[in-house]
Design the sequence.
């Protein structure tokens, strides 16, 4: 077993989408270093290329030759967001205010995901959107947009970002109110590209203007690092340092909860406050060591800060002595799979037990996972959790369709096997 090993997570996917989009509509040339090339971010890049933007993709970087706010061109064929909801929702906001029409298609997983959540605010802004029973494909007829005041009915960074991007084309200041804070990468990226944005009290005010190109380096993805972090917490004698990882507070729910559960986690080389002002994201190293975990209570307001990591926390809870409760995680239904069903199927299939009633998970630990099952999923995050569960189970938990991890982290299994072997 490797001790104190250094782990470099792939670049953050969420931030990469935002960087590509703002670079595309800014004035000037943007170099994105530590670029995350996975299916999702490439979907955004290819859509932008179809909209007339020149993007040079290199091994670990991307150079975007910005077209300016009004420089995009109608795509000759429909755009494809592949299986990426962020691509579809963010680009819908971007395309709503253009003077041309667009169609965005999605593949199988994306075609099941709800799009009414963006149709509503964008329509209020004057956009002309057509869905197919609330789902993709999305047809957008470009229209002049008006600024709105909008209270988000759900805590969704993708919906917020669609409205902010549309707001760049609106006739005044757009105001957004959030019920709970969701990831703020669009707000940070707008700042970095010199668009004025005021934030306070869960309220965001955007002053539209043309973004200015900015060079940036993307930190490591905390969501990709999460299976490595949890595995380290759960395996005796193990310790890792996660290098150059995103430390944005709106994404730190998973780490906060693990610390609350008693995990031995500390930070090194934090690079934060002074740079956040200009829009750069905070990052640093996360040192993780094995430690016994305790149960925890998670409230609805904390869910957005760990939305993609909740199923991993559920797995962690099966290994801690006592009762863990997670309230208000119903948004999990609308991810790449219905993750409420998927995580229950995974844990039950492995011989464990968790309960979901009244939008609340109850997990009683510690549990022995027997394993001896094959997990057939097309959901990248569930496949990664199955890899962690495999380390804990008596008999192997095999993942069929390992390729699904290409959506966010093509090298996941090869990296994971280097650090953790059963
Ligand atoms: C994302 C926001 C979250 C998250 C998704 C990426 C983003 O979705 O689950 O993986 O990049 O904005 P919601 O905004 O739908 O909660």
Sequence:
């Amino acid at each position: 077993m490797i001790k104190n090993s250094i782990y470099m997570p792939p670049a953050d996917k969420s931030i990469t989408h935002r960087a590509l989009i703002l670079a595309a509509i800014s004035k000037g040339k943007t170099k994105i270093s530590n670029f995350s090339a996975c299916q999702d971010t490439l979907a955004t890049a290819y859509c932008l290329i179809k909209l007339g933007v020149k993007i040079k993709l290199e091994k670990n970087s991307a150079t975007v030759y910005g077209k300016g706010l009004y420089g995009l061109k109608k795509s000759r064929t429909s755009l494809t967001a592949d299986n990426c909801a962020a691509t579809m929702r963010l680009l819908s906001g971007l395309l709503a205010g253009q003077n041309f029409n667009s169609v965005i298609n999605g593949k199988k997983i994306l075609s099941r995901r709800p799009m009414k959540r963006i149709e509503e605010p964008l329509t209020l802004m004057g956009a002309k959107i057509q869905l197919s029973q609330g789902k993709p494909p999305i047809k957008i007829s470009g229209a002049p947009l008006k600024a709105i005041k909008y209270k988000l009915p759900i805590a969704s960074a993708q919906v917020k970002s669609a409205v902010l991007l549309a707001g760049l084309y609106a006739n005044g200041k757009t105001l957004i109110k959030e019920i709970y804070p969701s990831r703020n990468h669009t707000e940070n990226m707008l700042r970095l590209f010199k668009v004025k944005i005021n934030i306070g009290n869960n309220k965001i005010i955007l002053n539209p203007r043309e973004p200015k190109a900015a060079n940036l380096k993307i930190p490591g993805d905390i969501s990709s690092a999460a299976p490595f972090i949890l595995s380290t917490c759960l395996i005796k004698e193990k310790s890792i340092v996660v290098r150059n990882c995103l430390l944005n507070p709106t994404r730190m729910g998973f780490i906060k909860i693990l610390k609350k559960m008693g995990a031995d986690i500390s930070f090194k080389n934090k690079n934060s406050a002074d740079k956040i002002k200009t829009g750069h994201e905070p990052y640093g190293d996360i040192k993780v060591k094995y430690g016994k975990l305790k149960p925890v209570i998670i409230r609805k307001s904390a869910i957005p800060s760990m939305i993609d990591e909740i199923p991993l926390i559920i797995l962690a809870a099966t290994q801690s002595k006592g009762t863990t409760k997670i309230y208000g995680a119903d948004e999990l239904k609308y991810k790449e799979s219905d993750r409420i069903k998927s995580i229950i199927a995974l844990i039950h299939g492995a011989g464990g037990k968790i309960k979901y009633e009244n939008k609340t998970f109850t997990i009683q630990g510690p549990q022995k996972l027997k394993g001896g099952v094959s997990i057939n999923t097309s959901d990248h995050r569930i496949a990664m959790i199955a890899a962690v569960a495999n380390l804990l189970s008596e008999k192997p938990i095999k993942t069929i369709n390992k390729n699904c991890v290409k959506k966010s982290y093509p090298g996941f299994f090869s990296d994971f096997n280097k650090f953790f072997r059963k």
